[in-house]
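For the sake of clarity, the format in which proteins appear in this thesis is described at this point. The record quoted next illustrates the convention:

___
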Amino acid sequence: MNNMDRRVFLKRSGLLGLGVATAAMLPLRAEALSFGKRMVMVSQTKLAMGTFVSMTLLHSSKDQAEEAIALAFDEVQRLERLLSRYDNTTPVYQLNREGVLRDVSPEVGDVMSHSLRFHEITHGYFDVTVKPAVDFFKEMVFKQKSNPTENQLKEVLSLINARNISYQDKTIHFKKEGMGVTFDGIAKGYIVDRAAEVLSDRGIENYLINAGGDIRTKGSKQGKQPWLVAIEDPEKRQKYPDVIQMRDGAIATSGNYEVYFDKERMFHHIVNPMTGVSPCSSVSVSISAKTTMEADALATSVFVMGPREGTDFVNSIPHCSSLVIAKDGALLKSSRWRS
C-alpha cells in the first residue's frame, strides 16, 4: 500500500468516480477525503459474495457516511447468509439438499419470485435451475478433465426447467428429484439494491456501489459530475471497450472470463437452459437498467441468447440498454446505449 501511487489507489478504489464493471483487487480498508467545507468522500472495500464489494459515498458528515456504509455492509452480509448456495446453514442450501423449503423468509421468497418472473420475461433463457449443469461441469470438466457425453448432458438437461418449481403458501418445492437452484445470476444484484436502500434510508444522496461488476449509483461524485463506469476488457489489457456516465441507475456485466472450467472457456458458470451447455458466441454482456437485480438477471439472459438476439431483446425493453462483446471482438450496442 505504501508503495502504491496514491492516485492509482484512489482510482482503483472508486474515489475518483471510476467504477469498473468487474471484480478487481482492491485494498480492504476505508478512506475518507474532504472536498472543501461541505462534502466528505468515504470509501470502503470488503470481501463479500465471493468478490470485492466497494462502496463510495459523498456526504456532508463523515460520521454519518461511515455509519451508513457500515450498516450497508451489515445488510450485504445478512442477505448473503440467506441466499448463498455454498454455506450449508443457508435456506438455499437446505432447499437444494431436501428439495423443499417451508416457512420461506421474505428475502428468499422475493428472490425466487423475481427469478420465476425473469424466467417468463426472457422466455426461459433465465433459469435458476441450471445448478445441476454448473455442478456437473465443475466435477466432470474441471476436476476429471473429461468432456461430457451426449447422454450425460441429456440427463442433466432433464433437471433444468424453472417451471418445475412450485412456490406457494410460503413453501418452495421441486417437482423433480435431483433439481437444484443457484441464485448466482440474480442474488448479487438483489443484495446491491438492498444495500443501496440502506444508504438512501440513512440520507446518503450520492454513492457508487460496485460488487464485482454489479454497480448501483445515485447522485453524483465531486463537483456534481456523473459517476463514470468503465466496461471491463475481457482480455484484461485495461483497454476499456466503453465508458458510460451514470447518476441514478444500475449496470451489471456477465462474462465467460471470470469463472470457467476449461482452458478454452467452452464450459463456464453461465449455462444455456435449453441445451445444458455454456453459450460461446459472446464473451461479455453489460446491461444498464433501473435496478441492479434486473441488470444482473438480464445480463445473464442476454449472454445466453447471443449477441444479435440478445440485443434485439433489450431493444424491446423501454428502460434498458446493452453492450455485447461478441466472440470475434465485435461490439453490439442496443439503441438506447449511451457511451
